[in-house]
């Protein structure tokens, strides 16, 4: 009997002023898994935005939004960049944008609302007004 198991894994890297300050895994949420299935069928919307926030509640499969969203920016490459079974998403918060004590991030299909693909919570990254934060996020189908 054949058993094939498809898994979705996510990991991201947070850089502050060009220096990697955190590398963490994330949770692909239930809505994100449904989005992947919908995209296989030709439906759904592409992931085009990344959000950051200050919420500290642990990521859970039922999450559909960040707990305390601070800002959301368009991805550097709309829909991400495909490399085999991995899609890489990246977004940058320039000086004066998204300033605060960041503790969560998520991938979304719209600049407001939309479907959340993945969410993560991390140790605080303090983004001052002059700082530049870049998050690079890989979603891999295993």
Can you summarize this structure?
By secondary structure, this protein is mostly beta strands.
Structure report:
- The mean pLDDT is 96.
- The chain has one helix spanning 30-41, and strands at residues 8-16, 19-28, 49-53, 69-74, 81-83, 86-93, 100-108, 116-127, 133-141.
- The chain has one domain.
- It is 8% helix and 50% strand.
- With 142 residues, the chain is mainly β.
- It has a nine-stranded antiparallel beta sheet with strand order 4-3-7-8-2-1-9-6-5.
Please give the radius of gyration in angstroms: 15 Å
Sheet having the most strands: 9 strands, antiparallel
Spatial order of strands in the largest sheet: 4-3-7-8-2-1-9-6-5
Q: How many separate structural domains?
A: 1
Mean pLDDT comes to 96
Overall morphology = globular
User: What's the number of extended β-strand segments?
Assistant: 9
Contiguous helical run count: 1
Percent strand equals: over 45%
Order of helices and strands: EEHEEEEEEE
Which residues form runs of ≥5 with pLDDT under 50?
Answer: none
Secondary-structure class = mainly beta
Q: What percent of residues adopt helix (DSSP H or I)?
A: under 10%
**Termini separation:** 20 Å
Record keyword descriptors for this entry.
single chain; 142 residues; mainly beta; 9-stranded antiparallel beta sheet; 1 helix; globular
Give the topology:
Layout: E1 8-16, E2 19-28, H1 30-41, E3 49-53, E4 69-74, E5 81-83, E6 86-93, E7 100-108, E8 116-127, E9 133-141
Antiparallel strand pairs: 1-2, 1-9, 2-8, 3-4, 3-7, 5-6, 6-9, 7-8
């Amino acid at each position: 009997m054949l058993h094939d198991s498809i898994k979705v894994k996510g990991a991201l890297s947070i850089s502050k002023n060009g220096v990697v300050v955190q590398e963490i895994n994330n949770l692909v949420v239930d809505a994100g898994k449904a989005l992947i299935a919908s995209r296989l069928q030709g439906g759904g919307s592409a992931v085009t935005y990344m959000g950051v926030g200050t919420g500290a509640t642990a990521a859970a499969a039922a999450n559909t939004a960040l707990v305390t969203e601070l800002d959301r920016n368009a991805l550097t490459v709309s829909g991400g960049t495909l490399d085999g079974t991995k899609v890489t998403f990246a977004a940058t918060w320039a000086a004066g944008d998204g300033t605060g004590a960041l503790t969560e991030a998520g991938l979304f299909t719209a600049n407001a609302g939309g479907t959340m693909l993945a969410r993560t919570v991390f140790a605080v990254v303090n983004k001052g007004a002059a700082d530049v934060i870049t998050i690079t996020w890989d979603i891999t189908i295993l």
